[in-house]
Fold this sequence. Notes:
Layout: H1 2-15, E1 29-34, H2 41-59, E2 62-67, H3 68-72, H4 74-80, E3 86-88, H5 96-102, E4 110-112, E5 132-136, E6 138-139, H6 150-154, E7 158-159, H7 162-174, E8 179-183, H8 199-206, E9 214-218, H9 227-235, E10 242-244, H10 252-258, H11 264-277, E11 282-289, H12 296-309, E12 313-318, H13 336-359, E13 365-373, E14 380-385, E15 390-394, E16 403-411, E17 416-419
Helix pairs in contact: 9-11, 12-13
Bound molecules: S-adenosyl-L-homocysteine and iron/sulfur cluster.
Iron/sulfur cluster binds at residues 141, 143-145, 148, 150-151, 185-186, 221.
Amino acid sequence: MNENESEQTAGILRSQGAQPCSHAEDSDIIIINTCAVREKPVEKLFSLLGRLQHIKKKNNACIGVTGCVAQLFKNEISQRNQSVDFVVGPDNLWKIPEIISSLSQSSSCIIHTPRNRQWREIEPIARKNHISGYVSVMKGCNHFCTYCVVPFAKGREKYRPLPYIKAEIKDLAEKGFKEIHLLGQNVNSYQDPESGKDFVSLLKEISPIKGIEWIRFITSHPKNFTSDIIKTMAETEKICHQLHLPIQSGSDAILRYMGRGYTRQQYLEKIGLLKENMPDISLSTDIIVGFPKETEKDFSETLSVLKQVQYTNIFSFRYSKRPHTAALKYTEEVPFEIKKQRLIQLQELQRRIQLKANQSLIGTQMKVLCMGKSTKNQNSYFGRNEGFQVVNFESASDVTGKFVTLEITDCGPYSLIGRT
Ligand code: SAH
Ligand code: SF4
């Protein structure tokens, strides 16, 4: 989502005549888009700002900060760092050109972070890749999981009108894109503001768009991930048999403290239904280790979920305290060393699961969308299979942007190697 917002910001600037620079040293405008989901984002921002000082001095470059850190820490940013010219929240990217134009009249940092209750279209989007496109369908979140800062940074859910979504996908198809990713913090709760059409209707309306061959979406919340969505995924040719369904913890007690709104059993029932309807489905998840009160037993329940589900991939994090969140009231913190150990143990287990699963793919054939040349050597390319796994391969001709059928010849835990 942040990458998509960076592409939107670049699009806005380009529409006003700005050109991208190949070297930061040459730039007149530098915008740092930020994420506040996990620990120390402000420190990271200040360290980057420090490293950009020389460009500011050399070119008198204007420096802006956007994204969730901008929204949450606007005052701290403007007070602590004199080189920041503007701070703009995630709802206000469209305002950037106007702010840049007014900078000469203002010696102090301009802060613009009001909340937008309605969806606001931003175009054009300067896309980094021309094969696989991000399409935003909603923003914000109404869930308020007790550890998460997103609802405070991005605000309540706002849904993009269906006609805009369809128009963007048609445009991508005409430009030759082969794949789209529908984006939102909680895509399942999508509702067209005009017609009230839900996420299933959205999937059904976009799937006939010619040219787009693979459709993916992220992120789904297990609480409102319905059997209707599963049925639609199974029945609709273009929807990839791939799903990111964050569980966060395998322990019911921890899920309750996290305010996730489902039990381990309910989550696993949905996984069962997914596998029943799509035996080839590739699943991934997010896990937080060391949430307050997490015991060894709670943690072992998370490990057992990994063994049971056999995810293709996981994204795992040590719990970090975030401002405004309800979990700040839990005083029973897990010591840093234990969190660290648990993360290592979790990732090691998952590494073994992935290696074994990937080894079982050796000798099989699969369809891969080639995303481009890899830096290794002249004829090396990389792509993604339907399960969203990276596949590296060699090809005598340039197949960037094309689907190729590969035979898997080797693998590691995190990627596959194939041949044409
Ligand atoms: N909307 C998505 C996730 C958004 S944040 C969902 O509900 O699944 C992405 C991931 O960051 C979360 O799934 C969670 O695993 C992690 N995360 C969020 N807050 C965190 C925190 N305070 N500490 C550690 N990880 C966190
Ligand atoms: Fe954060 Fe929970 Fe919303 Fe995901 S669903 S963005 S984890 S509050």
